[in-house]
Backbone:
């Protein structure tokens, strides 16, 4: 193994975890100290749900179009139906019964029977998958909010409202999708909002079924046959309002509940969708002598994009769109919409834009975000599922530029892919930016930390975006013109998340091996630094490790408590890492030396807010994806489970990952290195432990 001096020399290569993206979901990566963002070369998210019961959308081709209704027959007691779920003995059915018991006002046995039979009699595996996702992310976490939120599954609440007013089809993933995305409104809204959500959800289910019949009568696409992630996108009527707008959820959700005024502003009404659908299907209503609706779904989207954003007969501005954006001072101004004075960009009131701008003047104002939300609603009126793709440019020096663009990608059932209109994909080509930070908007299926914001470079992000990474302009064009397959986008929209959550775990007391570091020095780029920068919490006193229950536990003992806040401007971030080589040698992984090349990294990362100094912590399992010599290629395994005890406010922390998180089994040999690090006054320092070198062990 490497000598102590060699190890210290190597340790000047710093890892810093950074979380990304203005309205981008947190991507994360590590990089060498003079740095550039890492470049993603693959469009695969690399995410696989860890539950053995989760069904991936490789089954999309076998999705069954519902043709039969759920029959209840003679109605029995609520307890009878819940006992059916419980007697099944497997998840998610047992939890479904438990969660139904928690919802206040569940008194209608027929509605409970419909939910029970929908779950137990399913033939489409995506029904079970939808219930699993609902059980996982449908109950809000009080820690995410400053006011009291429901202590029950709000997504299941919406499903119950649907069951009260509607019959369910067998394998009714449309009803499930509506429930999955509308639970967030119940969580953040007041009582008036909850009443509106109940009404709107029922109307949306009727509208989508009606639209499916209309399209089927014309021999066109069938939204009822869509895979689950497409139905989720179709069911979300809130466009990009988690991100921007006068009633956006990110800025407002912590202060007070969302009012009915805000909810109605943020969502498109069924009445507006119906008017849009009528205009699109009537010849001459928008285009001379023809309708916007084409036989091919792709051409219909093309017509929408062209008509609203690209139609340019005069060689000047678009005929139907006045571009306005905060980045261009001469176009930013105030307007009055729906009796409220707002900016003429980042509006997101589709009903107001439709009735007060388009129908009256034939023209709209806004930026590309507004156009994305606008076209999303018109597409939704025809049963076309869309979501936003946002890319933001970096120049050759990796500095943020003014170029940024967002547009819709949409599901094409003919190819089972998510693609984009070529007119939109061409925007950005030739701008000169080296990389495009690329993100996909995610509807609120998993409410946990969905609205919690984090920092990545100069961007703010939350779980409402999934960050693909830094792609070139050509990457974006070439990948999304044909489009990624449904199963890949399902991972992005329904499973991938920006950070691995830090969950309390009961550490199983196994046989601990302890390594003690008697040195108080840390190491920077210029070598050893006597002392610990006056930050004893970054100095590792000892490390203990244990392998129990097919999990690896590592306990860092520190010389002081990890602070919950620091003086602004001194400490930017600290981290505690376990580097793991799962196939000893340098055949794979990031080459450390001739004997050690870690394939995985287990990390507890603390960032201190730049304005308040408040600590925000995250835990990650990262996998190396580079060529061996590039230490920037670390990507989170988003389906992994990194759990932590201790940490903030404590002088120790224990971090855990499962064997399967790092792709190993019992009897495997792994090699470990432990260390801490700090970004202090703009410089990186590390403290390795043990000083003697890597530790090799066989997993029991």
Residues:
């Amino acid at each position: 193994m490497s000598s102590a001096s060699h190890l210290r020399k190597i340790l000047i290569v710093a890892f810093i975890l950074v979380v990304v993206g203005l309205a981008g979901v947190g991507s994360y990566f590590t990089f060498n100290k003079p740095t550039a963002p890492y470049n993603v070369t693959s469009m695969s998210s690399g995410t696989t749900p860890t539950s053995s019961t989760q069904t991936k959308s490789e089954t999309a081709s076998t999705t069954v179009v519902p043709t039969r209704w759920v029959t209840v027959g003679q109605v029995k007691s609520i307890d009878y139906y819940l006992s059916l779920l419980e007697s099944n003995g497997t998840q998610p059915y047992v939890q479904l019964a438990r969660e139904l018991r928690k919802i206040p006002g569940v008194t209608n046995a027929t509605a409970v029977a419909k939910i029970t039979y929908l779950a137990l009699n399913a033939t489409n595996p995506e029904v079970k998958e939808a219930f699993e996702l609902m059980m996982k992310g449908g109950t809000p976490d009080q820690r995410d909010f400053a006011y009291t939120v429901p202590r029950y599954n709000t997504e299941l609440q919406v499903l119950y409202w649907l069951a009260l007013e509607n019959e369910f089809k067998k394998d009714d993933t449309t009803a499930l999708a509506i429930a999955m995305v509308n639970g967030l409104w119940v969580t953040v809204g007041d009582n008036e909002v909850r009443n509106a959500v109940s009404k709107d959800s029922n109307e949306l289910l009727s509208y989508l079924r009606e639209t499916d019949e209309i399209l089927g009568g014309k021999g066109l696409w069938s939204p009822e046959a869509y895979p689950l992630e497409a139905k989720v996108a179709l069911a979300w009527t809130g466009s990009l309002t988690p991100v921007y707008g006068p009633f956006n959820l990110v800025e407002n959700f912590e202060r007070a509940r969302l009012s009915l005024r805000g909810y109605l502003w943020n969502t498109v009404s069924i009445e507006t969708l119906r008017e849009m659908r009528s205009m699109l299907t009537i010849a001459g209503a928008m285009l001379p002598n023809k309708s916007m609706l084409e036989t091919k779904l792709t051409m219909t989207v093309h017509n929408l994009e062209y008509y609203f954003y690209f139609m340019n007969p005069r060689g000047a501005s678009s005929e139907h769109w006045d571009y306005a954006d905060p980045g261009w001072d001469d176009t930013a101004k105030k307007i009055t919409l729906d009796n409220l004075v707002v900016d003429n960009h980042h509006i997101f009131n589709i009903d107001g834009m439709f009735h007060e701008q388009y129908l009256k003047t034939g023209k709209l104002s806004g930026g590309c975000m507004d156009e994305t939300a606008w076209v999303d609603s018109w597409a939704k009126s025809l049963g076309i599922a869309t979501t936003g793709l946002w890319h933001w440019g970096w120049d050759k020096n990796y500095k943020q530029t003014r170029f940024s663009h967002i547009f819709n990608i949409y599901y094409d059932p003919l190819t089972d892919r998510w693609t984009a209109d070529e007119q939109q994909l061409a925007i950005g080509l030739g701008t000169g930016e080296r990389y495009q930070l690329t993100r996909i908007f995610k509807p609120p299926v998993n409410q946990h930390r969905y609205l919690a914001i984090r920092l990545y470079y100069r961007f703010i992000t939350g779980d409402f975006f999934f960050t693909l990474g830094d792609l070139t302009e050509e990457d974006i064009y070439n990948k999304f013109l044909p489009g990624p397959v449904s199963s890949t986008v399902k991972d992005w929209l329904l499973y991938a998340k920006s950070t691995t959550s830090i969950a309390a775990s009961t550490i199983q007391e196994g046989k601990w091996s302890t390594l003690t570091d008697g040195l108080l020095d840390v190491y920077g780029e210029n070598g050893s630094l006597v002392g610990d920068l006056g930050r004893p919490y970054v100095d590792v006193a000892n490390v203990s490790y244990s392998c129990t229950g097919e999990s690896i536990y590592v306990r860092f003992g520190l010389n002081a408590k990890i602070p919950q806040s620091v003086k602004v401007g001194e400490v930017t971030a600290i981290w505690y890492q376990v580097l793991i080589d799962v196939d000893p040698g340098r055949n794979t992984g990031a080459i450390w030396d001739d004997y050690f090349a870690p394939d995985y990294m287990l990390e507890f990362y603390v960032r201190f807010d730049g304005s308040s100094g408040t600590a925000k912590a995250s835990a990650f399992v990262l996998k190396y994806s580079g060529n061996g010599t590039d230490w920037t290629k670390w990507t989170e395994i988003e389906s992994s489970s990194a759990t932590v005890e201790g940490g903030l406010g404590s002088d120790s922390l224990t971090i855990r990952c499962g064997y399967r998180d790092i792709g190993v089994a019992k009897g495997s040999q792994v090699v470990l290195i432990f260390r801490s690090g700090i970004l202090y006054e703009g410089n990186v320092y590390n403290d390795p432990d043990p000083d003697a070198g890597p530790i090799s062990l066989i997993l029991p």
Q: What stands out?
A: The longest strand covers residues 400-412. The two ends are 23 Å apart (CA to CA). Residues 191-217 form the longest helix (27 residues).
